[in-house]
Amino acid sequence: MTINCAIIDDEPLAAGLLKSYVEKTSFLQLIGCYGSAIEAMKELRDHPAQLLFLDIQMPELSGIEFARVLPPNTKIIFTTAFQQYAVEGYKVNALDYLLKPISYDDFMKSANKAVEWFTIVQKQQAYATDRFMFIKSDYKLFRVNLDDILYIEGLKDYIRIYLQDGSRVMSLMNMKKLEDYLPHPEFLRAHRSYIVHMTKAESIDRFRIVYGDQFIPVSDSYKEEVQQFIDIHTLV
Prior knowledge:
Shape: elongated
Order of helices and strands: EHEHEHEHEHEEEEEHEEEEEH
């Protein structure tokens, strides 16, 4: 995977250091380096970057202000000498926050977070379009069609996928990772131990999701999101 990125920083030395880091990182492709958010705004409109290394304290337009007008698919790693901006940075959904002076080790940790995020998005798009995924089980890769899944149960370090035909697929996998990859809100976390395929639910009985003779509980932690899905699809 190659991620197109840009640097926006009004300090030439800081921008030059970041540029050197990007150039020696194989999965990053630098498409622009700008001395202000105003300059970047003009260029990025026609040549958008997937990832921005964005300074916060800049004249005319701060990094925080610029971040608020960016499209949601443009991800941000803030760079600043002032730690007090960290909270503001996360309010605009930044991937990470780098405190100057920035070491290459810290830079790589942030860059790897970007790779993880874009990998998840890429897989989400593939699963939503192709409607299947491969699951490793017993040293084999099994094709699982999303439309065949009823629900998924978490069992410590394993997951068990329950299919419409009554079969099951078990795999060594993290529930949170699987939840991130599956199309949302078609698949929702209903409980610490369950991800449910909402479009396959036969009925909702006292806040339990019913598939045949199986009743999947909805815990308080996930009740609001499940209720929103139910409300949208309920004819009253």
